[in-house]
Amino acid sequence: MNRFLANDLLKLKRRDFLKAATIATAAMGLPSSMISKVEAALKDPARPPVVWLHLVECTGCTEALLRTSHPDVASLILDLISLEYHETLMAAAGHQAEENLERALEKYSGKLICVVEGGVSLKDKGIYCKISGHTTLELLKKVAKHSSMVIAYGTCASFGGVAAASPNPTGVVGVSDVVKDKPLINVPGCPPNGYNLLATIAYILTFNKLPEVDYLKRPKFAYGRKIHDHCERRPHFDEGRFVEQFGDEGHKKGYCLYKVGCKGPVTYANCPVIRFCDAGVWPVSAGHGCIGCTEPDCWDTMIPFYEHVPGTEVPSGMGIVGQAERIGKFALGAAAAGIAVHAAAGVVKKVVTKEKEEE
């Protein structure tokens, strides 16, 4: 009985692991032929050691990660990476937790992947946020020194986030403003999609290099196209069908949310494609517009959140359907004109023929 149960558990684990590799491969935009290579990289027994720092943030990024299921957090920690330090998830606390950190920095110096959740407070030497008596600035510099690369996970770590919004009283900045001498990847979002972190780590393990990034150091496979390009409400935008206010008939019918503030046309992310937490939904599909959370300074530049982006025009409604109707009307007019010409030609021909017969 136990032997059969063990076999079933192994099959289930194998299935989940393959699904994780498949999701990571799809998130990276790689063909299905690469799944086996990604899987092999993820199964490598030499799991990368990770130190995860919590700086100026709300822990929402970790909360979102806890809700992924392929892989779930247990698989991520136990099978894919070696999580050496994470204040929220680790069993240790206090002095024991700090001893774990020191041990990891010594044991894996130069090999660590440093994942940072949260921004860095700089004002007054960073006294506004401390962990174990150390400012976030001191802690980040210390861990980054022993790391091979840094992944800024979430908008706070990437660009400063809500804590850096004007007037930014504690002088919060993104990780890239502090770490200048290490390879760095930004995975923004408030919260970010856990699968984008998985795909980033999978890419590094598979190809032994960082993924291609944009000018904001975001991996292009996740942040290379606008949300607007993949949104399921895009046809309504093209046809000029908009929600005028929340709860109206257009809202009930799933019309475009642009007029009530959706920032999809100016935001780069893969939310409509990969969605969230295996629930198959994302904010726009649930009826709320995108707030542009993967972009720098979104808390300042994307407000008011419920008004459309200044400087962009609402389409006139001449989209695919409108154009088809216009072309159809033109075609009908052309056809009618053709019929008229053909009929006129027929009449002329009959007259000419009759005249010849009379002669």
From TrEMBL:
GO terms for molecular function: 3 iron, 4 sulfur cluster binding; 4 iron, 4 sulfur cluster binding; electron transfer activity; ferredoxin hydrogenase activity; hydrogenase (acceptor) activity; metal ion binding. [4Fe-4S] cluster 1 binds at C58, C61, C156, C190. Its EC number is 1.12.99.6. Belongs to the [NiFe]/[NiFeSe] hydrogenase small subunit family. It is an enzyme of class 1 (oxidoreductase). Heterodimer of a large and a small subunit. Its main location: periplasm. Pfam families: NiFe_hyd_SSU_C (PF14720), Oxidored_q6 (PF01058). Its cofactor is [4Fe-4S] cluster; [3Fe-4S] cluster. Residues 223-306 form the Cytochrome-c3 hydrogenase C-terminal domain. Residues 58-203 form the NADH:ubiquinone oxidoreductase-like 20kDa subunit domain. PROSITE patterns: TAT. Keywords: 3Fe-4S, 4Fe-4S, Iron, Iron-sulfur, Metal-binding, Oxidoreductase, Periplasm, Signal. SUPFAM superfamilies: HydA/Nqo6-like. One of its GO terms (cellular component) is periplasmic space. [4Fe-4S] cluster 2 binds at H228, C231, C256, C262. This is Hydrogenase (NiFe) small subunit HydA. One of its GO terms (biological process) is anaerobic respiration. It is found in: Periplasm. It comes from Thermodesulfatator indicus (strain DSM 15286 / JCM 11887 / CIR29812). [3Fe-4S] cluster binds at C271, C290, C293.
